[in-house]
Write a structure and sequence with these properties.
The chain has 15 helices and 4 strands. It is mainly alpha-helical and about 400 residues long. The protein has 2 domains: about 1-45 and about 185-390, no CATH class; about 50-170, D-Maltodextrin-Binding Protein, domain 2, CATH 3.40.190.10. The protein has a 4-stranded mixed β-sheet with strand order 2-1-3-4, with helices on both faces. Helix 2 packs parallel to helix 9 (about 230-260) and helix 8 packs parallel to helix 10 (about 270-290). The longest helix has about 35 residues, at about 360-390. It starts with a helix and ends with a helix.
């Protein structure tokens, strides 16, 4: 009974200290509540439409005008101006009145008549990948569509329409994206970001809490009071406080945020709970281990904030996992977010079961064991230094 009493007392003191500290409160309550809404709202439209684009039509032929009409008729690109030269088009890009340039060479129609290839140049403002994607995909699709018509006209002299259709498309196909029907940015990015927010806010909150304790107790990691005599009890007491808060935050993200912004939510609710429990626990123990190296409140911000973007890349979500060098792949396994993001995306976006994410699920439980033991060991070392200093 005394052990449970000490754990509950540590939990209560952590609760009181955190809710008295506005800085820590911002990281463990305000950020997990507001950031998912902010990120989701920014990308609500999923895709960009009618990207302003200018054309330099040096050919001024029937074929070039047909190409321009098809591009302008697409939902993603809007032709706003016809320029005489590249300098004039660049000026519109500099003033952000347009985000892309399509340059059609003067030899376009002549090349087609002689059966030669012709190159249409596309220049994009790379300050936004969404603009680049819209312009390049649209011009590529239009050129492929026109290529099929040109191939039929040049190489098939039959008047039978069915033969022309077969020559144009020997095998009919339909492009149906199962898990991201709009090919939207929000459906792709927001689910893994939600998991990353959990880890990063725990790192910042627990780290700042440790820095506050050390500042208050003249460098000591723990208060010199009776409950703080056993490292395991301290770890369990702190874990209980943060776990109760973040399990609520995780449910909030999986239910309200997903439904409010129509994000993918194909996964079973029970599967999500079973997966997110080890993820939160591994993040908590991981944060406790790293908090040992925080000596001031500000240290955690300098240590943890900058790693958010690299972690997103190393997870294999925004950059293919097979293309990541083995060294960085191994480094990524040290972070719970690597397994949390990959598992959550497959559960929420693809309806995966626990068996489908068994590697990520078991890896999180392994991390729990490793980081729990490390946290207890490091806390015990810090407690021994406090006792030695006191003696």
């Amino acid at each position: 009974m005394k052990v449970f009493h000490n754990i509950l007392q540590i939990w209560y003191e952590e609760f009181v200290d955190v809710f008295k500290d506005r800085g820590v409160l911002i990281f463990i309550l305000f950020v997990p509540l507001c950031y998912p809404l902010l990120y989701s709202y920014v990308y609500t439209n999923e895709v960009v439409r009618e990207v302003p684009t200018v054309v330099i039509d040096e050919s001024n032929s029937e074929l070039s005008r047909k190409f321009i009409r098809k591009v302008d008729a697409s939902p993603d690109v809007k032709i706003i101006a016809h320029c005489y030269n590249l300098e004039e088009a660049r000026e519109l890009i500099k003033r952000q009145k347009a985000y892309g340039i399509i340059r059609i060479p003067h030899s376009l129609e002549k090349d087609m008549l002689h059966g030669d290839e012709s190159n249409i140049a596309v220049y994009c403002d790379m300050s936004s990948m969404l603009y680049y994607k819209a312009i390049v995909l649209t011009t590529t699709n239009v050129s492929l569509d026109m290529n099929e018509d040109i191939k039929v006209d040049n190489y098939l002299h039959s008047t039978i329409q069915r033969e022309k259709d077969i020559k144009k498309m020997p095998i009919e196909y339909s492009y149906i994206p199962y898990f991201n029907t709009q090919s939207g940015f929000a459906s792709f990015l927001i689910p893994p970001v939600l998991m990353l927010i959990i880890q990063q806010t725990l790192l910042l909150g627990i780290g700042m809490s440790m820095g506050r304790v050390r500042e208050r107790n003249k460098g000591n990691s723990f208060p010199l009071r009776r409950p703080y005599k056993n490292a395991i009890q301290i770890v369990f007491g702190k874990m209980l406080f943060y776990f109760l808060i973040y399990i609520i935050m995780a449910v909030y993200m999986f239910t309200y945020v997903n439904k409010a912004f129509a994000l993918p939510s194909l996964g079973d609710y029970g599967t999500f709970i079973a997966f997110v429990i080890p993820y939160i626990l591994s993040c908590i123990f991981f944060a406790m281990v790293l908090s040992v190296f925080v000596y001031r409140r500000e240290d955690c911000i300098m240590l943890f904030v900058f790693i958010s973007v690299p972690l997103l890349f190393m997870s294999g979500i925004s950059w293919p996992g097979t293309a990541i060098p083995r060294f960085w792949k191994i480094i990524s396994y040290a972070f719970p977010s690597t397994f949390g993001m990959n598992g959550y995306v497959r559960i929420s976006s693809m309806g995966a079961s626990l068996n489908d994410v068994a590697f990520e699920y078991h890896s999180l439980w392994l991390q729990i064991g490793i980081y729990f033991l490390l946290a207890c060991l490091l806390y015990k070392v810090r407690m021994a230094k406090v006792v030695h200093r006191k003696v």
